C-alpha cells in the first residue's frame, strides 16, 4: 500500500463533546428545537460516526456521570466505543490561556477545556450542540485568532447537522 493509500485510509478525528452522548440517550424532548437536535444527532450517530475516529476526554466522562443514574450509565456505555484522551498539562494551560484571552467566567471553564483538548490533540472536528459557548461564530473567530498567534490549528467546531460528509448529495445538486 502506498503512502497515498494510507492517507485515504486514515479517518478524520472527532472530539465528541458532552452534548452528543446526552442527546443520544435522553428522552425525546417536548421542545421542538431540542427534539430536532436529538433526531439529527441520532441520525448522525447511526449513519456517519463510523466514518470517523471518535475521541472524548476526562471532562466529557465526568460530565456524562452527572444526573440521572440510568441515563449516566447509558452515556458512559456510548463512550466505551470511543477513544479516551489522556489528561495532559498542555490542555489545562491552553484552557487557562483561552479563559484569560476570551474573558470567560469560571462557570464555563469546562467548555474551554473541551476546546483545548480538541486543539492539543489536533482533532479535525469538535462535535457539539453547545452553540452558546463552543459552536458560536464569534467565539470561533476569536479562538482562531488566538490559536494562530500560538501557532496552533483550530479544529472545525460544528454540530452533527453540519458534519455530514455525504458528498453524493452535494454532487446531485450540481
Supply the number of structural domains: 1
Strand content: 5-15%
| Total E-strand runs | 5
Strand order of the largest sheet: 3-2-1-4-5
Structure, explained:
The chain has one domain: Rossmann fold. The protein has 174 residues and is an alpha/beta fold. It has helices at residues 3-9, 19-25, 32-47, 58-64, 69-79, 89-102, 109-120, 137-150, 167-173; strands spanning 12-16, 52-56, 83-84, 125-127, 156-158. Helix 2 (19-25) packs across helix 5 and helix 6 (89-102) crosses helix 7 (109-120). The chain contains 9 helices and 5 strands, in the order H-E-H-H-E-H-H-E-H-H-E-H-E-H. It has a 5-stranded parallel beta sheet with strand order 3-2-1-4-5.
Summarize the structure.
The chain is an alpha/beta fold and 174 residues long. It has helices spanning 3-9, 19-25, 32-47, 58-64, 69-79, 89-102, 109-120, 137-150, 167-173; strands at 12-16, 52-56, 83-84, 125-127, 156-158. The chain has one domain (9-173): Rossmann fold, CATH 3.40.50.1010.
Features:
single chain, 174 residues, alpha/beta, Rossmann fold, disordered N terminus
SSE topology sketch:
Elements: H1 3-9, E1 12-16, H2 19-25, H3 32-47, E2 52-56, H4 58-64, H5 69-79, E3 83-84, H6 89-102, H7 109-120, E4 125-127, H8 137-150, E5 156-158, H9 167-173
Parallel strand pairs: 1-2, 1-4, 2-3, 4-5
Helix pairs in contact: 2-5, 6-7
Amino acid at each position: 500500500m502506498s503512502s497515498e493509500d494510507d492517507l485515504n485510509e486514515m479517518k478524520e478525528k472527532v472530539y465528541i463533546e458532552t452534548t452528543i452522548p446526552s442527546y443520544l440517550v435522553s428522552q425525546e424532548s417536548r421542545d421542538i428545537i431540542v427534539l430536532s437536535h436529538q433526531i439529527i444527532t441520532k441520525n448522525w450517530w447511526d449513519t456517519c460516526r463510523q466514518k470517523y475516529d471518535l475521541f472524548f476526554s476526562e471532562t466529557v466522562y465526568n460530565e456524562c456521570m452527572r444526573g440521572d443514574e440510568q441515563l449516566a450509565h447509558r452515556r458512559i456505555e456510548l463512550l466505551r466505543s470511543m477513544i479516551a484522551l489522556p489528561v495532559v498539562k498542555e490542555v489545562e494551560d491552553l484552557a487557562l490561556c483561552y479563559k484569560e484571552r476570551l474573558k470567560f467566567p469560571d462557570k464555563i471553564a469546562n467548555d474551554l477545556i473541551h476546546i483545548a483538548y480538541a486543539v492539543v490533540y489536533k482533532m479535525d472536528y469538535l462535535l457539539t450542540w453547545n452553540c452558546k459557548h463552543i459552536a458560536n461564530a464569534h467565539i470561533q473567530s476569536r479562538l482562531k485568532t488566538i490559536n494562530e498567534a500560538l501557532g496552533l490549528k483550530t479544529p472545525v467546531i460544528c454540530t452533527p447537522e453540519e458534519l455530514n460528509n455525504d458528498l453524493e448529495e452535494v454532487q446531485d445538486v450540481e
